[in-house]
Write a structure and sequence with these properties.
The protein has 130 residues and is an alpha+beta fold. The protein contains 3 helices and 7 strands. The chain has a domain of 80 residues. β3 and β4 form a beta hairpin. Pfam families: bPH_6.
């Protein structure tokens, strides 16, 4: 169970609905022959990925969740949060690596930074007269 101060980013749940529909649609194919039974694993894997994959952030760390497993990154290791050419959020780490944050768009970066307990220097609330 997540803490109240944890910000969770997940993919749109329509992907999960599409995976369930694909699973039901693949049932007749899988029942036609025994060797076609593994076809059901594809929509099942997509459903689990859609339900599980994403990014969790709190004041201590980032947790990047995938289909299988998760990766924890302390905020001390993050040098910069930026976006790539496709508008996805990317964390640049102190060892030179770049990690794409699943389900986080560039427009979500202020919410991600707020999860750390800090504020953005360019935040509109900090500028007088607006």
């Amino acid at each position: 169970m997540s803490k109240p101060d944890t910000v969770r980013f997940r993919y749109n749940q329509a992907i999960l609905v599409a995976a369930i529909i694909a699973f039901v649609g693949a049932l007749p194919l899988a029942n036609a022959r025994d060797y076609l039974l593994p076809v059901l694993l594809v929509p099942l894997a997509v459903a689990v990925w859609a339900w599980r994959a994403g990014t969790d952030a709190d004041a201590r760390e980032l947790r990047i969740r995938a289909l299988v497993g998760q990766r924890r990154i302390d905020w001390d290791q993050v040098l910069e949060l930026t976006t790539d050419q496709r508008g996805r959020a990317v964390a640049r780490l102190d060892d030179g690596r770049q990690v794409t944050l699943p389900a986080v768009r560039g427009t979500d970066l202020p919410q991600l930074v707020a999860a750390t307990g800090q504020s953005l220097p360019d935040a509109p609330a900090d500028t007088p007269g607006q």
